[in-house]
Amino acid sequence: MKDLVDVSGDVRVNDFVIKIGNVNGTGSASANGLLMKAIFRMGVPVVGKNLFPSNIQGLPTWYEIRLTKDGYMARSGTAEFIVAMNAETYKQDLAAVSPGGFLLYDSTWPRPDLHARADITAIGVPLARLVNAAFDNARTRVLMKNMAYVGAVAGLTGLDVEVIRGLVKEMFGTKEHLIDANMKAIGLGLDYVREHHPEPLPLHIEAMDKTAGHIMIDGNTAAALGCVYAGATFGAWYPITPSTSLMDGFKSFCEKFRVDPQTGEHNYCIIQAEDELASVGMAIGAGWNGARAFTPTSGPGISLMSEFIGFAYYGEVPLVLFDVQRAGPSTGLPTRTQQCDITLAAYASHGDTKHILLFPANPKECFEMAIQSFDIAERFQTPVFFMTDLDIGMNDWMIPELEWDESYTPDRGKVLTADEIEKLEKFYRYEDRDGDAIPYRTLPGSHPKGAYFTRGSGHNWKGGYTEDSAEYKEVLDRLTTKWKNAANAVPAPVITRCGRNARRAIISVGGCDGAVLEALDRFAENGVELDYLRVRGFPFNAEVDAFIAQYEEVFVVEQNRDGQLRSLLVNETAADKTKLIPILDYAGMAANPKFIIEGISAHLEALGDVA
Amino acid sequence: MTSMSKPFIDKHLPKNKLGLSVRNYEGVMSTLCAGCGHDSVTASLVQAFWELDLAPESAAKISGIGCSSKTTAYFMGQSHGINTVHGRMPSVATGANAANGDLNYIGISGDGDSLSIGFGQFAHAIRRNLNMLYIIENNGVYGLTKGQFSASADYGSKSKKGVANEQTPIDPCVQALTLGAGFVARAFSGDKSQLIPLIKAGLKHKGFALIDVISPCVTFNDHAGSTKSYAHTYKYYHPLVHTDFVAHADEVTGSYDKDGAMRVTMQDGGELFLRKTADDYDPRDRAQAIETLLMNKTEGEIRTGLLYLNSDLPDMQAANKLPKIPLNQVLYERLTPGKAALAKLQARYR
């Protein structure tokens, strides 16, 4: 099969990767963001991945910008153009450049070792010397060196400097001196490469029209916006990477939209808890009391919250948990991505517990599914897990502009009003009056007749404490039925068929989607026919069962070591587990199609069944 | 309280301003051991709510796990209750309070619940000045797991099997004072005349109100050598101040005879001995309150009453600028920015 990218001998237009190696804490994020945004503004689809260490300052950090004229949303796993700004990683960066590619380095100091590879081109730009001559302040020099490489990259690739200028103006608003300083630094890099490297690289950026109607946004911000539009009023959290920016976003949106200009009152409450145990407890308290409540966290937080999650499940208290997954186990790799909390979340807590999970694949779905999560949590009176990951949550993704249907009203589920309670002969909290396994609930203070006791200990359908086996079992069985019924309420799977009668298919989830779609194209080019189903909710919709039944083999593509999605499929569908073939990536990096192509190809080759 | 169920007949009982008798403030029958101090606290809560003319449904009862936490079921059956998980009652109370600050929040906890597994949440509820009455039913022992020392067990105090505790106790009142609580009191479950006014005062206090109630466990910690027994508590119990102070609530009155001293011989041979209330004690002086409590350790006395009061601290609702309308009642129309705002907002992401 053809390698994904080989730049040798080609002139590549809007189809390559610029990777910037830098030192954490040197202010490179704005320069890298500027580069990517400028490409986006030129109408070129783009993917940005921030590969950062679990460290505040000093360690190596990279930023990858993939120009993808075909609109692929995954990493390519290649680097045709590396900007090597970190002396500590020169060697590593040199090795990472794709054959025929380019490496830009700071030639203020001689770096003969960077010319060790004959198959790439090393381009020296004396960034530090240029910047030191132009700026006095030490910190400014560090920051402006980043802007200088933006200029150099622009000059070498054809990136429109006017677009950059427009963005710089937006960044600094009325602060003319900052606009001037940044443009000056950009000009230093730009002028230098125009003078010393007048020949354009075979890596071109040319204007397109493929980003109109799109935005660049990260999943945590989009999810936070979803919380606002869902009408969530209470959020409790304990800081943890990579979920922190979700609450930062919610706070920022609430300050913009939810502060009464007359009274200064806040139509929201955000509490930074003392730990994850407290944050979920607070969300439970608020959910019990009728507020739309949530807590963002990551795997270690879910571990700590587990006791309370079981309580909310058994007591039937709605709340939403945003699990922005990172690599585990234990502390694991806090700034790397994985999908390794799937089974943890599905069965969180002791005893027989099963939860509802939603799996967004991109920031657009983060916005939409955040809202659905609150509706489902209240409708089913139970915790709902919104299962995203670091790649979706913290990286900027290109998505169609978010839309809003003004007719939306929150589904508050079966909450009885005081008038409704008054009309009842008797209220029993866990009575299945409608036969749908969802009881009615009342809110504290609403009516004396509606009072009931919420407890994590054995209770019967009336809400009373019980140790009676039959009464205990009755409630557990109803909870099972309620959970099963949620299969039709969670977002339906997305099915992509290759148009022929494929014998094999892929099932995947969340942030793997972009990599799977790209891999499918590569397979199609090579005559390998595969259909594809992306799971978006748990419990599994009946379509998942039906889909698996149609194929001889189904490759289950996910980002963890143990095949956790596959485990759920084995546990919770009627599928023959022998035909569920795990295709796993657990290195902690954003998914790229390589592991899918290699994994499936190896399997097919072993069968002698290569197309 | 009684361990026998009684028919609901309140025809001849006095009614409060809401037309309710104390029977309307009762809950289900207690399943605690006969004579448990916690049942006395329950009875005091019933009386206090009735006397304050608070609608039963205006209360939200929150607890963790343990004998004490079971008691929320035994009073005000017409209000919502929630038994949470061990030691984590304060966080649930925090969320509930944020959703609707108009209710009267009563957290019932125990020394095991609050001073071991829940010590962190206890401290942070104080730090946030959560508007709630937080009662610790303190018996120095784990009852439900049959007799282990709790973190409030005094140094040298003996278990039922005669083993001496060799760790220093955590005093919730000292902790609350050092953490900045605005209302700190200690009481004895055997003295409703002191406890009821304290409960009323705690309910009326806007902010975190702690009442540490010495509430002997008749089954596992009511023997010679225990410092949380009825006998010991009666002997060393020392009302420090009158407990009839309630801001803006003149219907609350104290029942102490300031000059009186009382000695009562109990069935188990213990003695109730109440000395004069200290005339020079100022419950607005935090440092003095701490000093007094620390002194009591050396003197062996159990200082009771309202130990400290500061009603000027902003509570959690105020600190978070929460609206007058409870968050759980704010209309969705006021919460959603709408379609136009979403379109405008996205300009920054292009």
What do these coordinates show?
The complex is a heterodimer of chains A (about 600) and B (about 350). In chain A, helix 1 (about 30-40) crosses helix 5, helix 4 crosses helix 6 (about 175-195) and helix 7 runs parallel beside helix 12 (about 365-380). The longest helix of chain A has 21 residues, at about 175-195. With about 600 residues, chain A is of the alpha/beta class. Chain A is built from 19 helices and 23 strands. Chain A has a 7-stranded mixed beta sheet, sandwiched between helices. In chain A, strands 3-4-2-5-6-7 form a 6-stranded mixed beta sheet, sandwiched between helices. Chain B has helices at about 35-50, 65-70, 90-100, 110-115, 120-125, 170-180, 190-205, 230-235, 285-300, 315-320, 340-345, and strands at about 60-65, 80-85, 105-110, 130-140, 140, 150, 185-190, 210-215, 235-240, 260-265, 270-275, 300-310. In chain B, strands 2-1-3-4-8-7-12-9 form an 8-stranded mixed beta sheet, sandwiched between helices. Chain B is globular, with a radius of gyration of 21 Å. The interface between A and B is large, with 77 and 60 residues. Strand 17 (about 455) of chain A pairs parallel with strand 2 (about 80-85) of chain B, so a sheet runs across the interface.
Give me the strand/helix succession of chain B.
HEHEHEHHEEEHEHEHEEEHEHH
Strands of chain B, total number:
12
Largest sheet of chain A: 7 strands, mixed
Question: How many H/I helices of chain B?
Answer: 11
Low-confidence stretches of chain A: 1-6
Largest sheet of chain B: 8 strands, mixed
Mean pLDDT of chain B, nearest integer? Answer: 84
**What low-confidence regions of chain B span 5 or more consecutive residues with pLDDT below 50?**
245-276
The side-by-side strand order for the widest beta sheet of chain B comes to 2-1-3-4-8-7-12-9
Distance between the termini of chain A: 10 Å
- What integer value in Å does the Rg of chain A equal? 27 Å
Classify the secondary structure makeup of chain A into a structural class: alpha/beta
Question: Largest chain interface and its two residue counts?
Answer: A-B, 77 and 60 residues
- Portion in strands of chain A: 15-25%
Distance between the termini of chain B: 68 Å
